[in-house]
Amino acid sequence: MQWLLQQFEDTSKLAEALDQLGITYTWHKVVPFVGELIPKPVVADPGSVVMFGSYTLWRNAQANGYRPGVFKLRPFVREQVWHPYLLNGADALFLTLRDVPQRLADDGRDWFLRPVDDSKEEPGNVKSTGEIIRMAERVLVLDEHEIPNGSLRHDTLLMLTEPVRILSEWRLWVVDGRIVTYSLYKDGSHVVHRHEIDDDALHFGQRMVDINPGYSQAYVIDICRTEEGLKLLETNCLNAAGFYAADLVKLAAAIDGLGRT
Q1: Tell me: the pLDDT tens digits for 25-39?
Q2: pLDDT recorded at residue 163
Q3: Closest CA to 191 of 207, 215, 170, 219
Q4: Cis peptide before 68 (omega within 30 of 0)
Q5: pTM for the full predicted model
Q6: How far apart are the first and last CA of the chain?
Q7: DSSP, residue by residue, the chain
Q8: Is residue 94 within 8 Å of 117, Cβ to Cβ?
């Protein structure tokens, strides 16, 4: 597998793991809004390339036919098999950004908000209706050709749900149908990064993977513990998700192994 890395703090950690495994890689910058890599990679086999860095790398991977390149995902809220286990999504309000000012009443209510697509345009977070409306209005005053790739657009589909109290949150990395590593990233209201997970949470995460076997060859799944039990929070693109306290040697070995299967 040929590894192409964009310089970030997290990819620097990944590079250390690749060094331990004796796996070679090259560093690249990404031309903003264009997606070209500098320096241009010399690729021996486009069918055996993986890229890590910003989510927009998928455009470069697609343009050059790199496989696996970037593991793009279907929106998790459209996966019917997961609906009974979702914290947010099954009963969500779905609005495009252009519909927000007319359809969302400025009543002070709080919403958990995130784009439906795994696009990183807006991270999942809690906002008041007023904040959401103002966010939409700032985008809608722009002509669509003025909006850079990777930003919220007039037609971005948003998911809005009622916020729920979360006790713990974990990120799990899935490669070829198996959870290969994990990290705690929130304990109550405190952000903490520790390489640990409760046994029942790990089993729950693997069950979520098992019941949706065709979802993706590799991805990140975030789960949480609530007062009502364990829930699936969301999935994310593995190539652009924060590593927290994951075992990156195990992750890199698993991904590199995809090129030999």
Answers
A1: 999 999 877 789 999
A2: 82
A3: 170
A4: yes
A5: 0.82
A6: 11
A7: -EEEEE--HHHHHHHHHHHHHT--EEEEEE-TTT--EESPP--S-TTSEEEES-TTHHHHHHHHT-SEES-----GGG-GGGGGGBSSSTT-EEEEGGGHHHHS--S--EEEEEESSS--SS-SEEEEHHHHHHHHHHHHTS-GGGSPTTS--TT-EEEEE----EEEEEEEEEETTEEEEEEEEEETTEEEEES---HHHHHHHHHHHHTSTTS-SEEEEEEEEETTEEEEEEEE-GGGS--TT--HHHHHHHHHHHTT-
A8: no
Tokens encoding 201:
């949470």
Q: How many angstroms from the chain centroid is the CA of residue 19?
A: 25
* Residues making up the chain, counted from first to last: 261
Q: 157-161 and 110-115: which strand pairing?
A: antiparallel
Residue 36 β-bridge partners: none
